Amino acid sequence: MPFIAPESAKCPKCGKSVYSAEERLAAGLKWHKTCFKCDMCNKLLDSVNVAEHEGHLFCKICYGRKHGPKGYGFGMGAGTLSMDMGAQFGNTSSQMSNVPQTGMQF
């Protein structure tokens, strides 16, 4: 009877065999150490900073940006200053003020 080697798991990113000395586990799959990186920023991941969505790996920061809550206040750290002058809303003033202007027509 001929010897048949056991089938090793395939890496979902590159499709090659993953051996136990080089494997990383996430999302119930085995990945190569070099393939175990964020799909957006290509940062190498470890078990602490990995997040998975539909078979794709992300670092915690990119996962929050892509799949986290949307809207003002989400994804921005405390104390972040936005330099947006509101040009997309028709603001042409070079000086921004939080004082309401009287006599504005809506």
UniProtKB/TrEMBL annotation:
Keywords: LIM domain, Metal-binding, Myogenesis, Nucleus, Repeat, Zinc
GO annotation, biological process: muscle organ development; muscle tissue development; sarcomere organization
SMART domains reported in the protein's UniProt record: LIM
Transmembrane regions: none
One cellular component (GO) term of this entry: nucleus
First-listed, main subcellular location of the protein, grouped into a coarse class: nucleus
Residue stretches making up the LIM zinc-binding domain: 9-69
Zinc among keywords: yes
GO MF term (any one): structural constituent of muscle
InterPro entries hit by this protein: Znf_LIM
Cell compartment(s), UniProt: Nucleus
Record-given protein name: LIM zinc-binding domain-containing protein
Species annotation: Ramazzottius varieornatus (Water bear)
